[in-house]
Amino acid sequence: MTIQGTIAQWRERLRKKEISPVELVNLTADAIESDTTNAYISCDRQAALKQAESVDVNSPLAGIPIAIKDNINVLGQPTRCASQLLAPFVSPYDATAISLLKQAGGIPLGRTNMDEFAMGASGENSSFGITRNPHAPDHIPGGSSSGSAAAVAGHTSIAALGSDTGGSIRQPAGHCGIVGLKPTYGRVSRYGLVAFASSLDQIGPMTQTVEDSAIILNAICGHDKKDSTSANVEVPNFESFLGRDIKGLRIGVPTEYISSGNHPAIATALQNNIKELENLGAEIVEINLPHAEAVVAAYYIIACAEASSNLSRFDGIRYGKRAENTNGLIELFSRTRNEGFGPEVKRRIILGTYVLSSGYYDAYYTRAQKVRALVAKDFTEAFEKVDLIAGPTSPTPAPRIGDAAENHLQTYLADIYTIPANLTGLPAMSIPAGTAEVGPATLPIGFQLIAPHFREDLLLQTGFALGK
Ligand code: GLN
Question: Any idea which residues carry the catalytic annotation?
Answer without folding.
Answer: 69, 144, 168
